């Protein structure tokens, strides 16, 4: 994973706006550039998109800069082994599994929030190499859950084409009072990164991966050993 960002005394938290939601992320134990370890010279080229000051073209333009991290041990409570075990063992359908995994108090968001810096920007977070370690674990947990009842779970779909789709209440307080989120009503919110309500997906819904992979049906992407994929976790 490498190291934390350089410590910036008394730095503020970050107002994050993404997918129509406003989150107030508290400051961690770093906040500056990663200056030690294997990623000390790593360059991030996209963003910021989800928080100010944004990069060129609303954050989507070329903007080379150092890798920033802001490790926050207080936010790691979302990614305890007990949380992962609960995620794998309790939900009996994809609706409930998704709610535990993808909710802003879930293990997916927790992995991003506790690293901080680039990781709290949903659009530029792949610029930090730790993103791939974290998302491989997200995929692994989903695969383990599917494998408990593959005949029922491999082809389950849930949700809409756009993230969150207005399913959260207008204002909620996170457990432990660590931070809050609500639907974005701040002029700093970027309308181009908000996600309007959309239709439910089906197995025939196509995802467009652009230059990476073109269009693929959801039915082609729900298994690690079928369709275009051929890998297993051990």
Layout of SSEs?
Layout: E1 14-18, E2 21-25, E3 43-46, E4 62-66, H1 81-89, H2 94-102, H3 107-115, H4 130-148, H5 150-153, E5 171-173, E6 180-183, E7 206-208, E8 215-217
Antiparallel strand pairs: 1-2, 2-6, 3-4, 5-6, 7-8
Briefly, what is this?
The chain is α+β, with helices and mostly antiparallel strands and 234 residues long. It has helices at residues 81-89, 94-102, 107-115, 130-148, 150-153; strands spanning 14-18, 21-25, 43-46, 62-66, 171-173, 180-183, 206-208, 215-217.
How would you describe the overall organization of this protein?
With 234 residues, this protein is of the alpha+beta class. It is 21% helix and 14% strand. It contains 5 helices and 8 strands, in the order ββββαααααββββ. It has helices at 81-89, 94-102, 107-115, 130-148, 150-153; strands spanning 14-18, 21-25, 43-46, 62-66, 171-173, 180-183, 206-208, 215-217. The chain has a 4-stranded antiparallel beta sheet with strand order 1-2-6-5, with no helix packed on it. Strand 7 and strand 8 form a beta hairpin. Helix 1 packs parallel to helix 4 (130-148) and helix 3 (107-115) runs antiparallel to helix 4. The longest helix has 19 residues, at 130-148. The radius of gyration is 18 Å and the shape is globular. Residues 166-194 have low confidence and may be disordered.
> What's the oligomerization state?
single chain
Contiguous runs where pLDDT drops below 50 for at least 5 residues: 166-194
How many strands? 8
Determine the mean pLDDT.
85
Largest sheet, if any?
4 strands, antiparallel
The number of helical runs is 5
Structural class: alpha+beta
The sequence of SSEs as H and E is EEEEHHHHHEEEE
Question: What would you call the shape?
Answer: globular
How large a portion of the residues is in β-strands, by DSSP E? 5-15%
Strand order of the largest sheet: 1-2-6-5
First and last CA, distance: 20 Å
Helix content: 10-25%
